[in-house]
Amino acid sequence: MMYLGIGSKVHFKSMSDMKVVIVSVTSDIGLALANHWQNKNFNIYGTFRSISPELRKVENRGGIFVPCDLSDPESIKKACQELWDLNFTWDILVLCPGTMLPIGSFTDTNFQEWRRSIEINFIAQLELINNLLPLRNSNNKLEPLVLTFAGGGTNNATCNYSAYTISKIALIKMMELLDAEIQDTRFSIVGPGWVKTKIHKETFSAGNKAGENLSETEKKLASDECTDIRQVLKFCDWISTAPRGVIGGRNFSLVYDRWGSEELEEFLNKDPNAYKLRRSGNTVVV
């Protein structure tokens, strides 16, 4: 088995019984979440594509990570096997990978690049969920949680980002489907809004291919309107303990929803269709 600390003995520190797997732990949100929950004495496991000094620090505090390239099916298969070999059960599985590439109009896009984006943003994540679900801890009073991340495009057409957008929408629907099929696990997805992470470098590199979103990204990242990473962590704390009736199969907006409020929880418990993909205008007769 190949762990981040190759050649060294895997060291398990004395932590709480809560075990978390973070896929793409070297993403900005993944790394922040790993540090945040490690400070709460959670056991942190995860996958990484490339090693960073920041990830080394998490490892030195007891984190255990395996390499995984989501664009490579064999790498995914190997990573899942290595996690299985650790012989543990997880309470929370968070999937943080994402790429907005290829950016540009669909007709001008190399389709193999477009296909690869679908693989990374959707197919690979579902493969990981499928392989890791048997490792979930079903013995706690609260069901294990699978948390994924949404993007824009559910309420409009995000031009020049078709592969990324359609993958995220598919992921939203898949959380609802899994929630309906697997009732001993909580499946949910959150749109964090504009967060200052390295994924936006892809838009800057695309230049004019990004269309109007290039200037929009520049304005957003230079403003005070972006979601503070601390709010993302606060949301993850909330959803990790929220009941299935409130969060199961739902797509949350971190920015616009009153998550954590009794009023919202009461509303969601009463309406099984709320915060899910639905067709608009069903009651309109022309």
Task: Please summarize what this structure is.
With 286 residues, the chain is α/β, with parallel strands linked by helices.
Describe the protein.
This protein is of the alpha/beta class and 286 residues long. The protein has a single domain (19-195, 228-255), classed as 3-Layer(aba) Sandwich (Rossmann fold). Helix content is 41%, strand content 12%. It has 10 helices and 7 strands. It has helices spanning 28-38, 53-60, 73-85, 111-132, 162-181, 201-206, 212-222, 229-241, 244-247, 262-270; strands at 19-23, 43-48, 64-67, 92-95, 145-149, 186-191, 250-253. Strands 3-2-1-4-5-6-7 form a 7-stranded parallel β-sheet, with helices on both faces. Helix 4 (111-132) links the parallel strand 4 (92-95) and strand 5. Helix 1 (28-38) crosses helix 8 (229-241), helix 3 (73-85) packs parallel to helix 4 (111-132) and helix 4 (111-132) runs parallel beside helix 5 (162-181). The model is unreliable at 1-15 (pLDDT under 50).
